[in-house]
Amino acid sequence: MKKILSSLFSVCILMISFVSMGQQVIELKQPLSNKIIIKLMFRNGSVTDPVGKEGLTQATADLITSGGTNTMTNRQIREFIFPMAASYNSGVDKEVSIFTFTVHKDWLEKFYPVIKGLILTPSFTTEDFTRVKSNQQNYVDELIRSSSDEDYSKLALEDQLFRGTRYQHMVAGKSAGVAAITLDDIKAHYKNFFTKNNCTLGIAGNYTPAFLARLKKDLAQLPGTNPVIPATVKANEPDGVIVEIISKPDALGSAIFTGAPLAVNRSGDDFAALMVANSYLGEHRKSYGKLYEKIRSTRSMNYGDYSYIEWYEGGGNNQLPPAGVPRSVNYFSTWIRPVQIGEGLKKQYKELSDISIGHAQFALRLAVRELDNLIKNGMSQKDFEVTRQFLRSYIKLYIQTPETQLGFLLDSKYYGRKDYIKEMDALLAKLTVSEVNKAVQKYLQTQNMYITIVTDDSEAGPLAKALENNTPSPMSYSNLVRDGLPQAVKDEDTEIANYKLNVKSVKIIDTKDTFK
Hints:
There is one protein chain. The chain has a six-stranded mixed sheet, with helices on both faces. The chain has a six-stranded mixed sheet with strand order 9-10-8-11-7-12, with helices on both faces. The chain has two domains: 2-219, CATH 3.30.830.10; 253-513, CATH 3.30.830.10. It contains 20 helices and twelve strands. The longest helix has 21 residues, at 126-146. It has 516 residues and is an alpha+beta fold. The chain is 43% helix and 17% strand. Helix 10 crosses helix 17 (433-443). The termini are far apart.
């Protein structure tokens, strides 16, 4: 029995085929599985939002999965599938929208009419539309600015990186854009972009050939429009370090994101080398990276610090990179979780009563300097071997379930690969430290980048002035902490405090004026 259970997710057959209308189909046959997972990936993300209707794709996908069908209301559907433990959801990103349906194989026949109804005959009622639009409007108007300064700074960084392009606005849209969306807009967007001509079907589990044939036939009933997908954009190339500080009343700290365009993504073999460098600097939510070690562990400045070589969806919640957010446009970024502001430090420690700003400038300098050191000095053979060994095991955790396996296979197809996880593992197996260091020097740099900082309004002005003037930023420790630090750390602090950033522009933005 134990042997059978251990084979549950390992016994599978990957197949890629095409249905008659040219639609791609990815099969992950798992004869021992008791679940069926169906994913529909539409190559239609927020980049297809019309100007002035930013957020339309998100609203359309949400209305499909938060509404009903031509025979059942949303409430009736939820009550109907509750005993089945079935589930479904939608996810929208910049370039794709994905619908996922999961059900035990014994309930597939009863659940299937719901799948078919939601995708082919969504009800699009005024009542459901009003509810979905209200929630989306609340997010872009209020929630993004109040719930998490970390997510706020991340999305504000993307606003800088892609300003002036269809990538600029949040997937959820702009305030005015969401407000302008009508139910007729959603109906038209569904017809024009959620079509059989831009849909990839993924299916996993112990399904029958007859069921797959029926599913293919039914999906052929999707709208037959040939969607016009906008041309791929490019990230803006910053000239020097460009800083935007978002001034927010009562912010508890300074949340920082840095970013710069990256001329490689999962489609390129060099991505494996950058995976090693990225993990060395600071894998998401891992405590061994250089950024975490220097900022969090040694100096206790915040809760964590990490680097990224691609968009990381739901970084505040996800411990592992989720599937379903493939992007042709890429960038490198670092996440410095909120550090203390000057006002907070002065209230907490009498010995810091004369400081003008908090830890943001020092933490930023430290993070950029670590990247600079990696570019100039490279990884050692020892660090390379340890990091590579970790990664070869770690990336297998991305696909622990049939759903995540299928998700990454769909992503793989998007990037022109067959199986991203297996292919990256093969590349990592033969990678050398020299190749990693060459890739770092080729793709990463510290002289030209965008930086966003969400901070308290009391900190914004003094911090902007300090960054603009490259003012030295000695680390502000309490006496107790300072007395316990080794001399090597204090010496390094002096170097960091005087490390020059190539700052060319600093701008303060009122939080009320973002994402309009």
